[in-house]
Specification:
single chain; mainly alpha; 2 strands; about 45% helix; globular
Length: about 80
């Protein structure tokens, strides 16, 4: 994966560049373009962030965190 301006601030997981929830729309587009293995590889990559976000937000429902960090990978944008 390449370097991007759209990186998260932890523990809020807001984007440094645009202030949106991370991964923001620009970063999602970058990640899709950078994923030569397709959605499976991207989902595995994002699973790492999913687990880190769960650690940072233990009271947030896991399903909400999953949708934000991994669930979008399956949707076509």
């Amino acid at each position: 994966m390449s370097v991007s301006d759209h990186v998260p601030i932890r523990p809020s997981w807001q984007c440094v560049a645009c202030g949106a929830d991370w991964p923001c729309a620009p970063r999602r587009a970058e990640l899709r373009a950078e994923s030569p293995d397709g959605r499976v590889g991207l989902a595995l990559f994002m699973a790492r962030y999913f687990h880190e976000a769960l650690d940072d937000h233990p009271t947030t429902p896991a399903g909400d965190v999953y949708a934000r960090f991994v669930g979008w990978v399956r949707r076509r944008c």
